[in-house]
Each structure stands twice: as structure tokens, then as C-alpha cells.
Design goal:
heterotrimer, A alpha/beta, B mainly alpha, C mainly alpha, A: alpha/beta, Rossmann fold, five-stranded parallel sheet, 15 strands, B: mainly alpha, globular
Chain lengths: 445, 291, 337
């Protein structure tokens, strides 16, 4: 097989270009102050000014879907981690150690890939803790981290794995999400209370109809079924019960036609993907019925508000935790401003989750250090500190229950409504910053 | 009943136009240059992000951004063909290798877009807001724009192919690649231009969808799978007419089924129908004559 | 088979066996385990795409079937993984046979699409859960395939047990040798097949179907049986994968893996066996080592493929051949000069 010199030249040039790009990218992507030596030097100078010295480096691994379909969530994990690391380092680090991040791409969450990435972070990069929103859909990384007694901070529903975690303990896994069960009953219960008390009116007194749309995945359908059960228990009738395929859905026409055929008092869509939900709301508003609108999860994503603009007004949504970064809460609003300044954009919910993980770890290590002289490598002592001491997320107290899921005062389900891009808490009453109002399209519908 | 018909009709026209824009590009390339262009989806993504960048970030007039897309997309397609695929064709690489090469280019384009613009969802604002009602179906002005744009492009393409010398040359290469140089046609340049035209159509389709749906760097992937399926059903040698007709046929089946069946069951049924169609007529539904 | 080739082979196999004692990094071993399994799947894909010249895009579906079938049997029906290891490939064989007999008459290009559609439909079905899980596993809404969550997420799929020894990805070294043995076994079987009369008949069909038919080779039978053998090895790879990783999700046969495997086969060189094996090592390790760079990783891999294919359109096997011929020609010129 002959090879012309021209082709050889192309090949060599190509390889050189690829190497140059790869090399410069690697160089640019390396975290500033890579390595203990540079961290020491930099820290020494800063420490000289502040009267402190860096003792060393704490490496935190952040596996995230940097490419692939969920790249936007992956961006949020890394953004939250960078924000926390920068802030904490500016404040002098944790007990004199500087935080350094090691990111990895989990892409499509395939088990072999994720396991290999975890092994790399733990054994090759020698991280001191791993923090992310989630490393895979099946949480296969929990077992890998458990094998090495490595910290794994994450934010995922515990209902699915409740049985498994009762049998098998993950002493170094900490879940910042409390149970998703309130997603099923909290809204129906609150809705009924609002109607009984007269806080919120129905479009017509006898219209207790609800239309529920969900997508074909466990989260969406499980929540939808719970909502349906709870509403029907309270005398509501389900006029539409439609499932859409899991994935991108852009054409809501047929389903909306069914909804418009029998206008309900309430329209619910638990297909949580922001682009699907935004398309749904937009097409709904082309010819809206006089109904309330409840959307699952998507309104938390900044793009929901960005893409819909004023069409997002009036959407009701919820959270299983007392999320403080909403309007009317001093600490929350200040945090939001800080996040916007650091990130240059509005943060999604995973930014906050990962950010909070760093602070919980910091608090645990500081306590363990003060009480038992622990260093970053003494993970058993740090875990003990996190378990025994309470932590704070915002101003609510978080304790980790026996399966290491966030509970305590933090785990209070809350309802919100969007107005002008601001997420107002509307329930429970003692945390509310706004009384729930009928949406703007009721005037024209 | 009237309402049903008008809803189905509107959906068929709109989806069909979008599908045909994508599919015609694929058919053009596979008929003329004789390979499947797996970078087609990336061209669509490129189109969407290019117009978004000019319109939203640089705040240029939407007409100008849209018009600028055409020469740039043409260049992208032409350059891809000329520099990455042409030498493989010259060395008679197997079809699979050609597909892989276009795939590599496509993934580089998509990753570059991911790198520059990030993975967060974006949206091109509609050039025209508002909607009209036709017999019970609501049709936004944007959907009218889709119909208009695709019809114009297809008419332009037909004019090019049948009324100009260049078009005749392209048809000649599609029919008889070996004989074409004998009459003085520069086959390589024709290949490049074909890719460029396919890229324009994909880019326009990408932009139109980018307004309706939300733009992510993986926008093109889904579009391309649909186009791939339709192209194979219609037949790679079916020509413009076959590609367009198959697109509208599939769009019709999809819309009609979605109206009466739960949305969920529709993709498997479409798949099954396509498979049956292929088993019955493997060379394609609209290809004239036997294999 | 000449002695220098044999010596190289012994050297390579020997070093593969020695790796865990020399460099027992769990990450590197896990990487190699993944490489071996993917290499098995890609070599068998090469059987149908490269040797037979069929545009078979549904191969990955059989990898998935092999994995899920064995996993479901072991998880819900308490079937021993060793039995699953044998039964799964056989099921894939017959399924592949049935599929080919039905669709091959549709001709080259339509077959490509049908096989692709088969895979997309399978992934869709897996994501949807396929009905509720049997027996008491089904309470609480658990589905047969686990849906998007994956099979084995809640109750892990049982690993291979050899007496007291557990062979799973938790203990890298036994798993490494296990996969290595299967890889060598499959490669050897495929090699023997390709060089048998049966294999030669298949190649004859690819190169000149009419002539092959005129010499008495029934195209449909041969092609169908070849396809089934290639799907058999894909199923074997799947069964090995599922019990080692103890969890499997629909992304196994999704777009990302399809692209990776397709690249491995073509980059390695269609029509060779060791090409895909070598490409599997290269591409899988590259993807893992560059994993921290996000989109840069895809760009770098894409550029690498682009330029390598431009230089050697037949992929790495072509590159290796070129290197060898340059060395040989240099040697020759030195001898004569």
C-alpha cells in the first residue's frame, strides 16, 4: 500500500496539530496552582499576608456528565464545585488546606465508564472526597466509593434505594436530598387547603377536574401516580391521564387538544425536562384554558424562565426541601447574588447542592480536627463528625438520618409560584413570602 | 371532525417540510456523491447556533443573520467534502470508512459548538410572534415561516437542478459518475457543491427547529436519525421528489397516529411500518424500476 | 503461521498475563477489562461488517440482549451466572439467525436500516421497562429491565462465583484474568472460523457474490449463519459484562457506545481481527484518560480519527501494514545496498 508524501505530510501535520491542541488544552485546563509545591508557594505568599500558611492540598473529585445529553447539568455540578472551592480558598481553605478540584466526564453514565472514572479519581488522582449531583442513574459509584471508604456526596432521591440502603450501609455516602415522597402528597393536600380556606379559587365552583401528563420514567410516573391518587381521594376527577415518551418532546398539540376539550381546574405536567416543559407551557398559552398550572422541577432551571420570559408567570412548582434561595429570605437572596456574580448567570439547583456539599464537608473536617485532631485523610473521623453534628443548609438545620439522607428541619416540603422570574414561596404558610394568586391567562381565557 | 383533519393537516405540513429539508440534503449527497453524510446533523446544529450567535449575541437583524447562513453553510459543506472526504473517495475507500470520516467531522463540529456555547439550553427568538386559527387548529406564524422557507428552498433547488447548467452537471454525476468527466464536468467540484447545498438545507432546518424547540449541541442528532430513516424508506436513488414525498408520508402517519393513539406508542409503530415497507420494497418506496 | 508472528503473539499474550503483577492499578485493570469486552464485541462485529461486507448496525443490540438476558435470569430467577454465560450466547445465536433470515433478503442497504431500527427499538423497549418484574420483585412498581435506572441498581446482579472466589469488578485481578481468558478464547475461535473453509466461503461471497453462488455457496444460508455466529460472540461479551459490572443500563446500547464501537471497528481495520482489538485499547483508554477534558476529549479523538483515516483509509491495520512494509523495504535496501 503506497503512501504519497503529500498524505504523509497531511498526517504528520494533523498529528502535530492534535498534539498541540491537546497539550495546550491540558495546560490551560489544569487547575491553577496544580500540585502541592505551587499550592505551597502561592499559599505561603497569601498566608504571609493573612498570617496563615497552606498546610497542603485537599483534592475533591467531581464526576459530571460534561458531554452528552445532560451536559447542562454537568456544567452545573462543576460550576457549584468551582464556586465553593474558590470561596473557601479565599477564606483560607479548610484547616489550612487548599481545595483543588479534579473533574471527570461520566458522559452517558455507562457502568464500566463510571467505575473506571471512580477508580481513577480514587486510586490515581488520590482525591480526599468525591462530590457531585449524581455519578450515574444507577448510583453504581456508591459501591466503588464504599470499597475504598471514600466520601461520596450526592443529591439523588432515596425512595428508589430505600430497601437496598437498609440492608447495606454506605457510611461514607451522604445524600443531600430528602425523600421525594412529599412530591406525591404535599401539593394535593395544600391545594385542597387553599380551596377550603378560600385562598385560591377554582375557575368554577364545581370544577374539580385535573389533567395529568407524565413521561415514561420512574421519577415522572411515580410522582404522577401519587398526585392522581391524592387528588382523587379528595373528590377530584382525572380528565386526562397521558404518558409521553422519555426524551425530547416538542409537539404537545394532541395532548393539549384533549385538555382543551374538557377544561380542567388544574393542569399538571411531571415531565421534568426543562425544554419539554417550556414547549408545553408555550403551546398551552397559544389557547389556554382557565386552569392552574403545576410543573414538576423544570421551573427551578434558569432556562425555564429565560426561554419563557413572562409566559412563566403563574407556574406553581415545589421542592421536597426547605430551599432558602428564594425570595423573601435574606440569606437566600444574598446567596443568589453571590452565585450570579461568580457564575455570570443564574444558577440551577445542582449548583446549590454541590456548593452545600463543600460546606458540610468543611464543617465536618473542622470539627473533627478540633475535637480529635483529624486530618483530611482521616475520613472515618470526618464521617463521624458529619453524622453526629448538625449541619446548616442556609439557615435550616440539616441532620443526616440513619441512611445518611438529609432530614431534619431542612426536609420540609415547600410550594412556589413564579412571578417576574422570581420564585416566591407560597406554602407552608410560616415560610411563605407571597399568597398564591391565579395565573395571568385567567383574564383572557 | 373538521378540527381533527385540520390539526393533522397542519402537523403534516409542518413536520413534513422540516423532514423534507433534512432528507433532501441526505438524498442529494447519497445520490450524487454516493455516501451517507453523518455530519448532516452537525450541519443542522451549526446552522442553529450560527444564526443564534448573530441574532442574539451580535444583535444583527434576523434577515441578515439568516441570509448570512447561506454562504457560510455552503462553505462548511464544501470544505468538509474537499478536505476530509475527497481524498478517501479518490483512494476508493469503502463506504463504511467514508461514513466514519463524515461522522468524525460531525462530532468535531458538535463538540466545538459545545465548547464555545456550553451545554445550557438556548432559543432563537421567533422572528414573527402571533398565530392564526385554521378550522380549529392553531398555527403560529413561525410554522407558516417553516412552510414558506422550505417551499422556497425546494423550488430554488428544483430550479437549480433542472434549469441551470450546474444542475444538469449534478444530475449527470448522479447518473453516471464515470462518464461525467468525459463531457468536461469537474466531478470533485460538483461533490463539494452538493455537500454545500445539503449543508444549507440542514442549516436552515436546524435554525427553524432551534426556534421551536430549544437548542442544545445535540440538536442535530435526533433530526439526522429521522432523516436517515426517511431517506432509506424512500430510497437513496429516489431523487428530490421521492424524498419529499416520503417525508410528507411519514409526517402524515406520525400526525394521524398521534391524534388517535397515546403519544407513547407512535414511534414503535412508525419503526415497524418502515421496516415492513423496506421488506416489501427494499430499494425504496419511490424509486422507479427494480433494483 | 511463521515463527516470528508466533513469537510476537506469545510475547503479547504473555505480557497481558503479567500486567497485574507489574502494574496492579485498579483503574488500569478496569480499563483493560472494559477494553477486552469491547474488543470481543467489536471483533465479532467485524465478522459481519468486515469479512462479510454487510452493513450491520444492529450488532450492539445483541450485546445488550446477551447482557440483559443473563442478568434477568440471574437476578429474578436465581439462575447461576455460569448457566447464563452459556445460555445467553445461544439465545443470541438463534435470534440472530431468525433476524437475518427474515431481513437479509431485503438487500444491503435496507438491511442496514432494519438492523439499526432493531437496535433503536430495543433500546426504547429497555428504557420503558418491559413490563413489571416477576414475582415479589414486581411489588412497588419495579420493571423487568429496570428502565432508565438500569438492571441491578437496587438488587445487584449476582457475579460469577468460583467456590469462595468472587469474580466481579470489585476484585479486579480475578476479573481481569477471567476477561482476558474469554477474550483470547473468542479471538481464537473467530480466527479459526475465518481461516476455515466456511470462512473462506464467506469472503468469497463478499468479494463476488455471483461467482460464489455459481460455485455452489448458498448466500442466504452462509450469511445467516455468519451473522448468527457474530451475534453469538456479542451475546457472550454481554453475559461477561453484566456479571462483572453487576449493573447494566440502556446506555449500554445507546448512541454513545454505538459510536465508540463503530469507530473501533472501522479505525481498527475492517476485515482484520486484531485491528479492532488494538483499536479498542487505543480508543477506550484515550476516552478514559482524557475524560477530564470534557468536549476537548471528543474533539481530540475526532481529529485523531480524521487524520489517521486520511493517511490510511483502511484504519490502523493499514497503518500497521504500512509500518511493516517500510521496515521490510528498508531491510531489503540495506541488504542489497
Amino acid at each position: 500500500m503506497g503512501l504519497s508524501t503529500k498524505t504523509t505530510r497531511i498526517f504528520i501535520v494533523g498529528i502535530v496539530i492534535a498534539l498541540l491542541i491537546g497539550g495546550s488544552v491540558g495546560y490551560l485546563m489544569a487547575p491553577t496552582g496544580v500540585g502541592v509545591e505551587e499550592a505551597r508557594e502561592e499559599g505561603y505568599q497569601e498566608g504571609l499576608k493573612a498570617g496563615k500558611y497552606w498546610k497542603g492540598v485537599i483534592k475533591i473529585g467531581v464526576p459530571a456528565p460534561l458531554t452528552g445529553a445532560l451536559a447542562s447539568e454537568g456544567e452545573d455540578f462543576v460550576a457549584g464545585a468551582k464556586w465553593a472551592a474558590e470561596e473557601i480558598n479565599e477564606m483560607g481553605g479548610i484547616i489550612g488546606y487548599k481545595i483543588e478540584l479534579v473533574t471527570g466526564d461520566t458522559e452517558d453514565f455507562e457502568a464500566a465508564k463510571v467505575t473506571a472514572l471512580m477508580e481513577k479519581l480514587i486510586n490515581e488522582d488520590k482525591v480526599d472526597a468525591i462530590m457531585c449531583g449524581y455519578g450515574s442513574q444507577s448510583l453504581v459509584e456508591l459501591d466503588v466509593c464504599n470499597k475504598y471508604n471514600m466520601f461520596y456526596f450526592y443529591a439523588a432521591d432515596w425512595m428508589t434505594w430505600y430497601d437496598k440502603w437498609q440492608e447495606k450501609k454506605y457510611p461514607y455516602g451522604f445524600n443531600l436530598v430528602s425523600s421525594y415522597t412529599p412530591y406525591r402528597w404535599h401539593f394535593p393536600q395544600t391545594m385542597q387547603e387553599w380551596i377550603d380556606e378560600g385562598t385560591l379559587e377554582l375557575p368554577a365552583p364545581d370544577n374539580k377536574k385535573v389533567a395529568i401528563v407524565y413521561s415514561d420514567n420512574y421519577y415522572s410516573s411515580w410522582i404522577a401516580e401519587g398526585l392522581r391518587e391524592e387528588f382523587e381521594k379528595r373528590g377530584w376527577t382525572t380528565t386526562v391521564w397521558e404518558m409521553v415518551p422519555f426524551g425530547t418532546v416538542t409537539e404537545w398539540g394532541p395532548i393539549l387538544a384533549k385538555i382543551r376539550a374538557d377544561p380542567p381546574a388544574l393542569v399538571i405536567n411531571t415531565d421534568y425536562i426543562p425544554s419539554n416543559e417550556a414547549a408545553f407551557v408555550e403551546q398551552f398559552l397559544e389557547n389556554p384554558t382557565k386552569s392552574h398550572l403545576f410543573i414538576q422541577y423544570a421551573p427551578w432551571c434558569p432556562e425555564y424562565v429565560e426561554l419563557l420570559g413572562e409566559k412563566s408567570d403563574g407556574t406553581i412548582f415545589n421542592s421536597p426541601n426547605l430551599d432558602v434561595y428564594t425570595s423573601g429570605n435574606i440569606w437566600g437572596e444574598e446567596l443568589l447574588e453571590r452565585a450570579k456574580k461568580r457564575l455570570g448567570r443564574e444558577p440551577g439547583s445542582y449548583v446549590y447542592y454541590v456548593y452545600n456539599m463543600f460546606w458540610i464537608y468543611k464543617r465536618g473536617l473542622e470539627w473533627a480536627h478540633a475535637a480529635w485532631g483529624a486530618e483530611p485523610k482521616d475520613r472515618d473521623l470526618i464521617a463521624k463528625a458529619i453524622e453526629e453534628r448538625t449541619a446548616y443548609i442556609g439557615e435550616s438545620i440539616v441532620i443526616f438520618d440513619e441512611i445518611h439522607c438529609a432530614s431534619g428541619e431542612y426536609a420540609i416540603p415547600t410550594l412556589y409560584q413564579l412571578w417576574d422570574g422570581v420564585r416566591y414561596t407560597v406554602a407552608p404558610e410560616e415560610y411563605a413570602s407571597l399568597v398564591v394568586k391565579p395565573p395571568p391567562w385567567w383574564e383572557t381565557a | 371532525m373538521i378540527e381533527d383533519i385540520s390539526i393533522i393537516l397542519v402537523a403534516t405540513l409542518v413536520s413534513g417540510s422540516l423532514y423534507s429539508l433534512m432528507t433532501i440534503g441526505l438524498v442529494l449527497v447519497s445520490g450524487t456523491a454516493r455516501y451517507f453524510n453523518f455530519a448532516h446533523g452537525a450541519f443542522a446544529t451549526f446552522g442553529a447556533y450560527f444564526v443564534w450567535y448573530l441574532f442574539v449575541v451580535q444583535k444583527m437583524d434576523y434577515r441578515v443573520s439568516f441570509l448570512l447562513l447561506i454562504p457560510v453553510a455552503l462553505a462548511v459543506g464544501f470544505l468538509m467534502q474537499r478536505y476530509t472526504v475527497q481524498s478517501l473517495i479518490d483512494r476508493e475507500a469503502s463506504d463504511l470508512i467514508l461514513i466514519l470520516q463524515t461522522f468524525a467531522v460531525g462530532s468535531i463540529i458538535e463538540s466545538t459548538i459545545l465548547l464555545i456555547f456550553g451545554g445550557r439550553l438556548k432559543r432563537c427568538p421567533y422572528p414573527f410572534e402571533g398565530h392564526i386559527s385554521i378550522g380549529g387548529a392553531t398555527m403560529s406564524y413561525h410554522k407558516l415561516l417553516i412552510l414558506l422557507a422550505s417551499s422556497l428552498l425546494i423550488i430554488a433547488l428544483i430550479t437549480l437542478l433542472y434549469k441551470t447548467k450546474l444542475g444538469t452537471a449534478m444530475r449527470a454525476v448522479a447518473q453516471e459518475k464515470e462518464a461525467a468527466p468525459l463531457v468536461g464536468i469537474n466531478v470533485n467540484r460538483i461533490y463539494g457543491l452538493t455537500l454545500g447545498i445539503a449543508s444549507i438545507m440542514a442549516g436552515v432546518a436546524g435554525y427553524l427547529i432551534g426556534c421551536m424547540e430549544f437548542m442544545t449541541p445535540t440538536l442535530g442528532g435526533g433530526l439526522m436519525s429521522g432523516a436517515f430513516i426517511i431517506c432509506s424508506l424512500g430510497g437513496t436513488r429516489a431523487g428530490l421528489r421521492g424524498a419529499a414525498m416520503t417525508s410528507y408520508l411519514v409526517a402524515f402517519m406520525e400526525s394521524a397516529l398521534m391524534r388517535y393513539l397515546p403519544m407513547y406508542d407512535v414511534p414503535p409503530i412508525i419503526f415497524a411500518l418502515v421496516i415492513i415497507g423496506l421488506i416489501i420494497r427494499p430499494e425504496g418506496l419511490f424509486v422507479r424500476g427494480a433494483r | 503461521m511463521n515463527y516470528s508472528k508466533f513469537a510476537v503473539l506469545i510475547f503479547v499474550i504473555g505480557s497481558l498475563f503479567l500486567i497485574p503483577s507489574v502494574y496492579p492499578s485498579p483503574f488500569f485493570l478496569q480499563l483493560l477489562i472494559t477494553c477486552f469486552i469491547f474488543a470481543m464485541v467489536c471483533e465479532s462485529w467485524d465478522l459481519s461488517m468486515g469479512y462479510l461486507g454487510l452493513f450491520n448496525f444492529g450488532h450492539l443490540a445483541f450485546f445488550g440482549i446477551g447482557a440483559y438476558f443473563s442478568g434477568i435470569l440471574a437476578l429474578y430467577y436465581d439462575v447461576s451466572p455460569w448457566i447464563g454465560l452459556v445460555v445467553s450466547p445461544i439465545v443470541c445465536f438463534f435470534l440472530g439467525l431468525a433476524l437475518s433470515l427474515v431481513t437479509l433478503r431485503a438487500g444491503g442497504f435496507a438491511f442496514c436500516l432494519i438492523s439499526f431500527a432493531f437496535q433503536m427499538m430495543l433500546e426504547h423497549w429497555i428504557r420503558s421497562g418491559g413490563g413489571s418484574a416477576p414475582g415479589e420483585y414486581g411489588r412497588g412498581g419495579a420493571t423487568l429491565t429496570g428502565g432508565t435506572l438500569g438492571l441491578g441498581a437496587i438488587h445487584p446482579i449476582p457475579p460469577f462465583q468460583l467456590g469462595p472466589l468472587e469474580i466481579s469488578s470489585t476484585y479486579k485481578i480475578p476479573a481481569y484474568y477471567f476477561t482476558l481468558i474469554f477474550f483470547i478464547f473468542s479471538t481464537y475461535c473467530m480466527y479459526k472460523l475465518m481461516n476455515s473453509r466456511f470462512g473462506l466461503a464467506g469472503v468469497a461471497l463478499r468479494d463476488s457474490e455471483r461467482y460464489g453462488v455459481s460455485r455452489g455457496i448458498n448466500p442466504l444460508t452462509y450469511t445467516a449463519i455468519f451473522m448468527s455466529i457474530s451475534t453469538l460472540f456479542a451475546g457472550l461479551g454481554g453475559a461477561v459484562y453484566v456479571h462483572l459490572m453487576q449493573v447494566v443500563g440502556p446506555e449500554l446500547i445507546g448512541w454513545s457506545n454505538l459510536v465508540l464501537m463503530c469507530c473501533i471497528v472501522e479505525f481498527g481495520g475492517l476485515g482484520t481481527l486484531l485491528g479492532p482489538a488494538a483499536a479498542s485499547f487505543l480508543l477506550t483508554s484515550l476516552t478514559q484518560y482524557l475524560a477530564g477534558l470534557g468536549p476537548y476529549k471528543t474533539i481530540i479523538v475526532g481529529l485523531l480519527m480524521l487524520f489517521t483515516l486520511l493517511a490510511w483509509p483502511t484504519g490502523m491495520a493499514g497503518a500497521a501494514y504500512w509500518v511493516k512494509s517500510r521496515i521490510l523495504s528498508k531491510r531489503l535496501s540495506r541488504m542489497s545496498g
